[in-house]
Amino acid sequence: MTAYYFDNRFINELPGDPLTLNQPRQVLGALWSTVTPQPVCSPQLIAYSAELAELLGISTDRLMQPDWLGALSGNALLTGMTPFATCYGGHQFGQWAGQLGDGRAISLGELIHHDQRWELQLKGAGKTPYSRRGDGKAVLRSSIREFLCSEAMFHLGVPTTRALSLVLTGEQIWRDMFYDGHPQQEPGAIVCRVAPSFIRFGHFQLPAMRGELALLNQLIDFTIDRDFPHLSASPAEQRRMQWFREICTTTAKLMVEWTRVGFVHGVMNTDNMSILGLTIDYGPYGWIDNFDLHWTPNTTDAEGLRYCFGRQPAIARWNLQRLAEALGTVITDHSMLSDGLAQFDQTFAQAMGDMLAAKLGLTGWHESDSSMVDQLFALMTESEVDMTIFFRHLADLDVSAPDLSVLRPAFYDSVKMKHYRERWDAWFAQYCQRVMTAPFDIEERKAVMNRTNPCYVLRNYLAQQAIDAATTGDYQPLQTLMQVMREPYQERPEWASYAEKRPDWAKQKAGCSMLSCSS
Ligand code: AMP
Ligand code: MG
Question: What is the pTM for the complete model shown?
Answer without folding.
Answer: 0.97
